[in-house]
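Sequence dictates fold. Below is an illustrative record:

_____
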Amino acid sequence: MSTPNPTFERATVERVAQEYRNKGYQVVVQPDVTERPDFVREYQPDIIARSSTESVVIEVKNWVSAADRDRLQAIARKVESRQGWRFVVVSPGDVGTGMHGPKLHDLQEPQIVALLRQAGDLRVAGQSQAALLVAWSALEAAMRRAAEANMLELRRSDPWALMRELVSNGVMDRQRYRDISDVLRVRSAIAHGFATPETVDLASVLDLVQTAARELLAESAQPVEPPA
């Protein structure tokens, strides 16, 4: 069973708060009871953002479970029954299951290959950190394609859950799983504005991510045979 990652959630709260500030909203992080509207006084949101045209109640979750979804839908109905108010869930660990926004569609193989090519171009241009973020996008898309090709039922689509499903079903070997787990920590540091440790060799990391993505694309074309 997975557990919440408070450090990751705090970093996400700060990132989202800054995004709203950049758009001109007045932002309160972890508003106390005196800073919440009466209709959600008993609920502790992560952020309340107000502008001249709307007010937004924001919840940040590492992932959204079925139980969370029921609770959040009840809160959303209460918030959005008030004119000018909106409720948003930011759930980076469960892409596509938030309360709002367009439905997300998985990339097809040519689009994933194009991302890998783009990562290679960035790498040649000396933009190693940007290259890693793009290459990781390709890798996650390739992991989802491999899971689909092998008819794996995914309860969550965050990268940790994806990798666990792939390794436990023999689609990814355990050494590759360990290597990619280390890469994910580096990728997360870059994505959330933290310094990359000096001991990290980004060239080797990029080699690993690009190789793993290509392996999974090949795996998608030839799924693992289920045990007899």
